[in-house]
Specification:
Layout lengths: L12 E3 L2 H13 L4 E6 L5 H13 L2 E6 L19 H10 L4 E3 L3 H4 L19 H4 L3 H16 L3 E5 L3 H13 L5 E5 L2 E2 L15 H6 L1 H15 L5 H12 L5 E10 L11 E11 L2 E12 L2 E5 L2 E2 L28
Parallel strand pairs: 1-4, 2-3, 2-5, 3-4, 5-6, 7-12
Antiparallel strand pairs: 8-9, 9-10, 10-11
Helix pairs in contact: 6-7, 9-10
This protein binds adenosine monophosphate (AMP).
Length: 333
């Protein structure tokens, strides 16, 4: 697809002020351009690139925000240790044809640190990471709502790596009648199975090696379901048991829930999410897989593996190519 870039600025423009962002995007939309948006916290990897490519393939103007949102970190969490690498991120944004990299200072997003409005999504935020990180999803929902208001995208792209976050954002967009299509993109893994995460940079070599047990646990659970197991409790226990074999990894939760509303199930049927969180040293990692269970059998989506191209998402010639390994492509539902 050929897209027009009415910003008349070749390459990636770095914008730090909300007013400038709005003015540029108002002008672009005024000329009929559509905006695709990818919210991030930076330290880019192939997961982020996948989202950028999906946005690039579908929209005239691609905006990526890079903002480590203090509101979604609890006391004692890793806000200060969160990886930051602006120069490398700018390079990635350029390679992926991003038009605007929005990098607001904290004061720009939260003037005088005086945010009186918080967006809270009920029910979906209660279990999984919501239990271990109270207030986390309020911080996510609030910043996403603010960014949606500032950017005014037609489509926003999120990774299925953060499955609960994707469910929360979809629901907030629907409940608040936001005219924004929320698209979920495949979870991207390292060749050894570890889900890509900016936080992987904070793992020591021994922790990095140990962390592969997380995706091994999911794969073991997937094998069990493929072999016919339909009891969510048994699948959960098998996944948890694999993770507890690794002394450097502390399991926080392994859960088997309905993918749509993240509720517990009696029996595996329909679209099922198997989600895990674990601490490896000081680093908290999450991972998941989706399983579609119907009378004919079960199909497992563990995402895609980096090093090979991701679906039919077009990308610049200069970047490495990817192949799908069973992962569903980006989809609005
Ligand atoms: P973050 O910068 O970690 O807040 O993530 C920004 C976006 O990238 C979110 O929509 C994440 O779900 C997505 N993302 C992060 N890691 C991955 C991954 N391994 N695969 C796919 N998407 C990812």
């Amino acid at each position: 697809m050929k897209h027009r870039n009415p910003l008349h600025a070749p390459g990636t423009v770095v914008v730090v002020w909300a007013g400038e962002l709005r003015a540029r995007l108002d002008a672009a939309r005024g000329q009929g351009a559509t905006v695709g948006f990818v919210p991030t916290m930076g330290a880019f990897h192939e997961g982020h690139r996948t989202l950028m490519r999906a946005a690039r393939a579908a929209h005239d103007v691609v905006v990526v925000s890079l903002f480590v949102n203090p509101l979604q970190f609890g006391p004692g969490e890793d806000l200060d240790r969160y990886p930051r690498d602006f120069e490398a991120d700018l390079q990635v944004a350029r390679q992926e044809g991003v038009d605007i990299l929005f990098v607001p200072p904290v004061d720009e997003m939260y003037p005088a640190h005086h945010q009186l409005t918080t967006v809270h999504v009920e029910e979906l935020t209660e279990g999984l990471c919501g239990s271990a990180r109270p207030g986390h999803f309020d911080g996510v929902a609030t910043v996403v709502a603010k960014l949606f208001g500032l950017v005014g995208p037609a489509t926003a792209y999120f990774g299925r790596k953060d499955a609960q976050q994707l469910a929360v954002v979809r629901r907030l967009a629907a409940d608040l009648c936001l005219p924004i299509e929320v698209v979920g993109c495949p979870l991207v893994r390292e060749p050894d199975g570890l889900a890509l995460s900016s936080r992987n940079r904070n793992l020591s070599p021994a922790e990095r090696a140990a962390a592969t047990v997380i995706s091994r646990g999911l794969r073991t659970g997937a094998d069990l379901v493929r072999a016919g197991e339909r009891d969510p409790g048994r699948v959960r226990r098998v996944v948890a048991n694999v993770l507890t074999t690794e002394p450097l990894v502390r399991l926080e939760y392994a859960e088997v829930v309905r993918a749509g509303d993240l509720r517990p199930l009696e029996r595996l049927e329909g679209e099922v999410l198997v989600a895990v969180a674990a601490r490896v040293g000081d680093v908290r990692l999450i991972d998941n897989m989706t399983i579609r269970v119907d009378p004919a059998g079960a199909s497992v989506d563990l995402g895609v593996t980096a090093e090979e191209p991701i679906g039919d998402i077009p990308r610049p010639e200069s970047t490495p190519t990817f192949t799908v390994q069973g992962g569903a492509p980006c989809a609005a539902r």
